[in-house]
From TrEMBL:
Gene coding for it: mnmA
Function: Catalyzes the 2-thiolation of uridine at the wobble position (U34) of tRNA, leading to the formation of s(2)U34.
Enzyme Commission identifier(s): 2.8.1.13
InterPro entries: MnmA-like, MnmA-like_C, MnmA-like_central, MnmA-like_central_sf, Rossmann-like_a/b/a_fold
Entry's localization field: Cytoplasm
Family named by the database record: Belongs to the MnmA/TRMU family.
Reaction(s) catalysed by this chain's protein: S-sulfanyl-L-cysteinyl-[protein] + uridine(34) in tRNA + AH2 + ATP = 2-thiouridine(34) in tRNA + L-cysteinyl-[protein] + A + AMP + diphosphate + H(+)
Tree of life domain: Bacteria
Site (Interaction with tRNA): 126, 336
Residue ranges annotated for the tRNA-specific 2-thiouridylase MnmA-like central domain, each copy included: 206-271
Region (Interaction with tRNA) residue spans: 147-149
Signal peptide span: none
Name listed for the protein in its UniProt record: tRNA-specific 2-thiouridylase MnmA
CDD domains: MnmA_TRMU-like
Length: 368
């Protein structure tokens, strides 16, 4: 096959590209330029998509002896990821930009361009597995549970999975680094990227403040009493405890968490930990990459990239989804994605719009 290997400049994508060559594919390395002003991005950082990363990717491609190109997707990234991120926070929701980048950039823009140029598939360094079976290609969790990225890939369709390779899904991170060292890759010990790539200093609240400006409002308790103020609801997310800016001397000694955000009234509601648990999740824009579960099928859901899976019953109606769990899940925010699993297999994902606590929940034994 003719394969585009997405090369970020990190160790994972380098080893993934090398393995595709070993498997006999005709491989071309591609680095995605995602910033309109790459020179403003930091170097030697724990983010990604920097000028340094582009140079690292090129040097690895040279060592592998494959063609290497930089594809400029900065405008698409700005619109589909950065602008979406800002708009979601402005509306009082909590988006996942890495998930959106996988959906809109790496497996829509990248794959579409690759196919248009005559390539057969794309390969990335994601930690997930694609298992081929009678029903087609199925997305599964990676062997390395600590690095598993199936959650952020839950937005992919069956057609996209059929044209994707994840060569690292059966390997641990430690083994990938060892392999990179054996291959002589100078980036074998390069740190992983954790930060949001378009917020170089890691200050999300400051970034949003510059984009949206001050939007002062009130912090209230669950009885509606004003207990503080803020400069914008975009600085908060459901379940947040630190950085709320409250005078603890006025509290009763119990920690307070963000339990509600209303961007229209510019109100942030705080409460005690017992108010955070929900066991009913409503979501929209469902994307199925596997068979949707039936109304009585036991499955599991996950609401964070490295969160716990929870046993659930999932009800579907068109593009809408309702998931009900036996155990309460804490800190679930509108805007997040809920990903549905059948064991290790990803069935699909949807965007959370609201949550509820509809009944008393059982002990933690309900967690899978």
């Amino acid at each position: 096959m003719r394969v585009v290997a997405a090369m970020s400049g990190g160790v994972d994508s380098a080893v993934a590209a090398a393995r595709m060559i070993d498997a006999g594919h005709d491989v071309v390395g591609v680095h995605l330029a995602l910033s309109r002003s790459a020179a403003t991005l930091r170097e030697s950082a724990r983010g990604c998509c920097t000028l340094e990363d582009a140079g690292d990717a090129r040097r690895v491609a040279d060592r592998l002896g494959i063609p290497f190109y930089v594809w400029d997707l900065a405008d698409r990234f700005q619109h589909d990821v950065v602008d979406d991120f800002v708009a979601e926070y402005a509306a009082g929701r909590t988006p996942n930009p890495c998930l959106r980048c996988n959906e809109k950039i790496k497996f829509s823009a990248l794959l579409d361009k690759a196919l248009a140029l005559g390539f057969d598939a794309v390969a990335t360094g994601h930690y997930a597995r694609i298992v081929d079976g009678p029903g087609g290609s199925a997305l599964h969790r990676a062997v390395d549970a600590a690095k598993d990225q199936s959650y952020v890939l839950g937005v992919l369709t069956s057609d996209q999975l059929a044209r994707a390779f994840f060569p690292l899904g059966d390997t641990t991170k430690a083994q990938v680094r060892e392999e990179a060292a054996r291959r002589g890759f100078f980036i074998a010990k390069k740190p992983d990227s954790y930060d949001i790539c378009f917020i170089p200093d890691g200050d999300t609240r400051g970034f949003l403040g510059k984009k949206l400006g001050a939007r002062p409002g009130s912090i209230v308790d669950t009885d509606g009493r004003v207990v503080g103020g803020h400069e914008g609801t975009f600085g908060f997310t459901i379940g947040q405890r630190k950085g709320i800016g409250l005078d603890r001397g006025t509290m009763d000694g119990q920690p307070r968490y963000v339990v509600g955000i209303d961007a229209e009234t510019k109100t942030v509601t705080i409460g005690t930990a017992d108010l955070l648990g929900v066991n009913e999740i409503h979501a929209i824009r469902t994307i199925w990459c596997g068979p949707p579960p039936g109304p009585h099928d036991r499955c599991s859901i996950q609401v964070r990239a490295h969160g716990e899976p929870y046993a659930a019953l999932v009800e579907t109606a068109g593009e809408d989804l309702i998931a009900r769990t036996e155990e309460a899940i804490r800190g679930v925010a509108p805007g997040q994605s809920v990903v549905v699993y059948d064991g290790d297999r990803v069935l699909g994902s949807a965007t959370i719009t609201r949550t509820a606590r509809t009944r008393k929940t059982s002990p933690a034994s309900a967690r899978l």
